[in-house]
Each structure stands twice: as structure tokens, then as C-alpha cells.
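Minimal example, chain plus adenosine-5'-diphosphate.
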Amino acid sequence: MVADPLAKLHEVFGYNQFRGVQEQVVDRVLARQRTLAVMPTGAGKSLCYQLPAVMMDGCCVVVSPLIALMHDQLRAAEAVGIRAATLTSVDQNRAETVARFRDGQLDLLYVAPERASSGHFRELLASAPLSLFAIDEAHCVSEWGHDFRPDYRLLEPLMDAFPEVPRLALTATADAHTRADIAKQLGIPTEGMIVSGFDRPNIRYAISPKANVNLQIARVVADTPGPGIVYAQTRAATEKLAEALARTGRPVRAYHAGLDPAVRAKNQADFVASEDMVICATVAFGMGIDKPDVRFVAHAGLPKSIEAYYQETGRAGRDGDPSVAHLFWGADDFARARQRMAEVEPERQAGERARLSALGALVETGGCRRRILLRHFGEELAEDCGNCDNCLGSPDAVDATTTAQKFLSAVFRTGQMFGAGYIEQVLTGQSTERSLMNGHEALSVWNIVSGDEVALLKPVHRALLLRDALRTNHHGGLEFGPAARALIKGEARLSLVVPPKRERKGRRAAPV
Ligand code: ADP
Ligand code: ZN
């Protein structure tokens, strides 16, 4: 190989320099060393295999899980003059592609992981000159990842049949545990892992419990000029939010899979072109759209995982200007997530549980949010970030163990069948016909919470649900979950973060 990567970068892509870890990754690939590149979205992963693909002899086979994504990539590669093709079920020109591949007329060939399992494909690979295997979205190979695809497991045996061909796995989303698993599953040595910086210092993170979420989001919208994305969990919720937000006077659109495709495309185009529009969307929105000046991303409910949260909030502030990410969560989000968890295959439950508890730690912390977020991706901040709600408001933590014990006792002594409202009545001694009839006024837990402690009851209730110390049954009644015992026995403690007073009283000035 004579060409110099930097010169080639300029010649083919028109860029003057590498970004972040690109050069490191490209160097390893050119040295034919197996590599796993973990780089956030937008960091420029594609270039890490596209550049070697044009520099090395033979064709680079790229495994990618989504046909739509492959076609985007194909267009982009062809636009800079790379000889590329896709080999998928929807391509009409497969025979021609196969011929070009065999003839050494291709730099890049995109295929879906399903191909890997076919004997035909292995024969095809054996009949063509190969330069590199690139595995995109490599977290799909891990059951610990959030998007496990069994077909990815067939890639390692396939690649093993071509031991002389180097491999490059790429992913944007992997915690340290998943990362190690990806490397193992794809036969990449630990020293072949290259992790780029994940910090997005211009994004301010803020996370609060839901109170009236539409109102909370309307406040974010009112406080933050510029384009924004609001993520809701259901189609109906996106529409409701769009309606509510329209009253703020900002242009608002909804975006979800249930909309007529023409309407959806128009809403997206309008948003991309606008300087102050708010789009209320399900999480499908944002993949592949390039809008650098998004000033805020708000979540009207818990995201699926820390990776998803990072990915979704990462759509804010790509231009580097100050931006905000607001997340509003409820204990019901955790309860629902646990329900879903019970439905996944047993071998995936441990991963799901870990994901949920990592989210719990992020939303509940009184410490620096960015620190927790980055630690999840294996990065340690030298000091607190100074640009998250907790750093800016320094919330106080209180030990709420005793209140939690009182709450749990009241649930237990009333027979694990009443809702939170009733439990609060019992604890604060509010006599009603119901409490009288039930004989609950004679219980030892009757009227044992008063004064400042009353304000802790709702957050304690939320925290108990989040920790799975309490569960809600089909009738809305509370019953013990597996984490109740340790709290009651005093083996576990419950510390709660009290939001800073000034945040509760009014709005803070917008950062932009
Ligand atoms: P990822 O797959 O990591 O999300 P992409 O490969 O889509 O990121 O790249 C994101 C954007 O960055 C693209 O528009 C790409 O052209 C651009 N890009 C990549 N590398 C460079 C570079 N070295 N210099 C300038 N722009 C780059
Ligand atoms: Zn911070």
C-alpha cells in the first residue's frame, strides 16, 4: 500500500482531517488488525471502513441490519465515487452485483446478516477478492445489547472461514459489559477496542419526575427557543402533546408510524427547514435526519435504556451550541418496563434488568448526571460537569428509610390491597368512612406521619415502585415486591433527592 490515508481522505471525501478516533481505527484496519470501534452517532463510523475499502485490494463486505440504512449508505458512497452495491432481497440487480463482486469491480458490498447463514454466500465470498469484513451495528451480536439479532451470531463462523481477512466491528451504543461481549462474539481481542469520547458538553441534562407532563413540556417549549423534539411513547400521546403544545404559539407537528406517509414526510421536511418548530414524535423519528440546530429534546416518559437516552438526546445541539435535554419520568414507566421484561426470553432478562436499573440510577441520582451517563460508556469525568440540573441546583439528599418503612408497614397491615392515596390517608390519620369501616384507625401505622415528612410520601411511593419494593396489582392496589424485605428489615436504605427549592418555585432562565 503506497497511498497515505490522510491524502486519500482528502482525495476521496474532501475532508482535511480525521475526526476523533477515526485515524486510530483506520490505521489498525490498514494494518489488518481486528478492531472494535465504539463511537457515538455522528462521529463518522462509516468512514472507518469506507476509506480502507478504497485503499485496500479487494472488496469490503459490510454487514448492516437495516435495508433502508444500507441504501442510504450506498447513495452516500456512490456520491463520492466509491464503487459500491447492496445485495438484499429488494435489489433487482443482484446478478449484476454478484458479477461485479467476483470480478473485483467493487470496493464495498452491503449485505444483511441473514445472508451470512447461507452456504451460497460463503461460496460467493470464497470466489471473490476480499479486503475487509465490516460489521455495522455490532451490538446486535450481543444478548446484552438492546437489539439482539440471532443472525449476527453466524458472522463469526463465517468470518473464521476467511482468517486472512481483517474485521472491523462498529457500534454507537454499548456499555462496557456489552462491548466486551461483542468483542468475544466476533473474535476481536480486547486490545482491539477503540472507544471514542462520548461527552456532549453543550447538552445540558435535566431529569425530573412527571407531575403534569404536558404542562412540564409546555414549559420547556416556552423556555427554549429554536427547534425541538419531544419524544412520547405512543402515537396517541404524540398527537395529544402536539395539540397541547400548539397553545404555546410555536409551530408544532406530530410524527409517528400511523400517519399517512405523505403527511409524515411533509412534517419531517417542515421540521428540518424550520427555525422554531417543535415535533412530537415516537422514537422512530430522528434516525438519519440531519438537523444540526435542534435546541432541545424532551422525553415525556422513560426511554428504553441509557443507550437509547444518549442516542435520542444526542440529536440536540449537533452544531455545538448550547442545548437542553429534559427527561420526565414516572414510577409507572418502571412498572411497565418490568412487565415487558417478564415477557422477553429468559436469556435476555438479565440484560433487560441491568438496563432498567442503570436507568433508575440515572433518574434518581442527586449527583452529576453526565458523570453517570459517561460512566455507563466507560468514561470517567475528572470533575462534575457543571451543566446538568444537579450540578446547577445542588439538590439535597435525605435519608427516607424510616418513611419508606412506615409506608411499607401500612401497605402490609392493610392487607396489600389499597392504593397509594389510601395508604397516605392512613399514615397521616385522615379519618374517612372507609378507614373507619375497615378498622384501620386502630392500626399501629395510623397517623404516624406528620409535618415535613408528609411531603416525602409521594417521592417515597415513587422510589419504592422504581426499586420494585412495591408493585401495583390489577386493581391499583399496592403489594410487596422482592425489594421490600430488605428495606423493612433495615438491611437496605432509601436515600432521596429533594429538588432544589428554586427549581420548584419557578423557572430557571433558558440557556439559549
Ligand atoms: P455515524 O455512522 O458514526 O453516525 P456517519 O458515518 O454517518 O456517522 O458520519 C456523520 C457525518 O460526519 C457525515 O456527514 C460524514 O460525512 C461526516 N464526517 C465523517 N468523517 C468526517 C471527517 N473526518 N471530517 C468531516 N466530516 C466527516
Ligand atoms: Zn453535572
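Confidence is low (pLDDT under 50) at residues 500-512. Residues 368-370, 384-385, 388, 390-391 surround zinc ion (ligand 2) (CB under 6 Å).
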